Amino acid sequence: MFTKLKPVFIIAGRELKDQFRDWRVLAPMAVLVLCFPILMNAFAQQSVDFLNRYNANLIIDRLVPFSILIIGFFPITVSLVVALEAFVGEKERGTIEPILSSPLEDWQIYFGKLLVGVATPLIASYLSFGLYMLLVIRRDLTLPSSLTIIQLILLTTAHAFLMVSAAIVISVQSTSVKAANLLASFIVIPVAILMQGEAGMLFWGNDNVLWWAVLGVTIVALLLIRLGLAHFQREYLLGREIDAVNLRWLWHTFWRNFLGGARSVPDWYRSVVGPSFKKIVPSIFALLLVATVSVLLSYMWVMKNMPAILESAPKDQIARFTQNLRETPDLKEIREKVSAPYLFLNNTRAVFVIFLAGVVSFSVLGVLAYMLNIALIGGLFGVVQLLGIPAWPLFIGGVLPHGIFEIPALIAGSAAMLYFGVSFVTPQTGRSFGEAGIELFADWCKIFVGIVVPLMAIAAVIETYITPHILINILN
């Protein structure tokens, strides 16, 4: 095993020596490591003095962890240029041919570059951590708990792997350093938005949720590493000189895969949609399991935690809410507020949002959004039971008639999203990064247009014109 890992460390050592000889890399890193903790310390002290006037103790206690999170982020963004130049930079300088023509395996070259790309920002971040902690101790500010410090270190490490692995993917797929640097915004901006959510968790004081953030970022980072390895091709890296946006090629590639040579709608369903549906069958079974677990967990959470919430709520509001559920709905009022086109657009939009969330996270956020949608069924079922209302009649009359079409459509669309993410990080022999993405997007569109849209249309019509009648008959 060590024999196979030795070339990885040789490449990493070579890259590390090149970096430490380049003052353009060392100077910004040194400035950030030495100056930024001092600035954050001054900011924290000024903020504490201001907040002490309003007795905002919770925010004061969370300022230091927030500062640590920010301090760990900035060295990673500056040193990201090293990872962005890992492959395309050597290609422009004409020094990559000896590495690619060596007997080293692809994964050894890739991990050598990845290792040094992660090591540099992490060293800078850890040094900034240490300097800031010393400054905090000298200022007599409240130090975070050891558990919180461990969480912040792990979160920063996960951020480094996430951003560097994404930068390596960009470096492999780019044809110039200029293009790679321009694409860096697609790394920095999403991670900055992600950190806003993590900062909210810190100020809220919920340390347990931070573990989920660490886990989620780590999973996406591992998937990005897998994506880079899956689409790393030496010949493709050497042979391509310039990228050109060929919209005609994009459209023809998509349309050819979407139609699949079918000459009629029945032929399209038989020869194109059918095989595409067979591809996502394993994903469907996986998401059925996820749905079952989500419904049970949400039901159990409501039954465990909701009684305390209901007891603390005003009694008149609970009584009014219960009375509204027991009242027979007015068909005219329902049809004025909710129409079939509105329900159809709302449901199909939800499936599309799940797909978009899955695309940017290799299905992780998409599956999470799917779980939240499905979990609403179990949560609502539990709330109705706690209010003393028969839940099964409401479920049979209010959910089941249109749900037998809507839920399968949601599962099919989400399964196509999961298949997209899993296939995208799987090696695609003989196909480029772009070709694989277009073909997988065409597969998702086949399921969406051929299965999700018709089922959602039927569900919207039933929910508008049939479900209310069934619900009224059951409630009466």
Mean pLDDT: 80
The count of domains is 2
Biggest pleated-sheet summary: none
Structure class: mainly alpha
Percent of residues in beta strands: under 5%
Low-confidence stretches: none
Helix amount: over 70%
Assembly classification: single chain
- Count up the helices: 23
In angstroms, what is the radius of gyration?
A: 27 Å
N-to-C SSE string, H for helix and E for strand: HHHHHHHHHHHHHHHHHHHHHHH
Q: What is the count of β-strands?
A: 0
N-end to C-end Cα span:
72 Å
Account of the 3D structure:
The protein is mostly helical and 476 residues long. The chain folds into two domains: 2-239, no CATH class; 247-475, no CATH class. Helices cover 84% and strands 0% of the residues. The chain is built from 23 helices and no strands. The chain has helices at residues 2-20, 23-51, 57-78, 80-84, 88-93, 97-100, 106-138, 146-173, 177-183, 185-204, 207-230, 234-239, 247-259, 265-279, 281-312, 315-326, 331-337, 340-361, 364-386, 391-398, 400-424, 433-465, 467-475. Helix 8 packs parallel to helix 11 (207-230), helix 14 (265-279) packs across helix 22 and helix 18 crosses helix 19 (364-386).
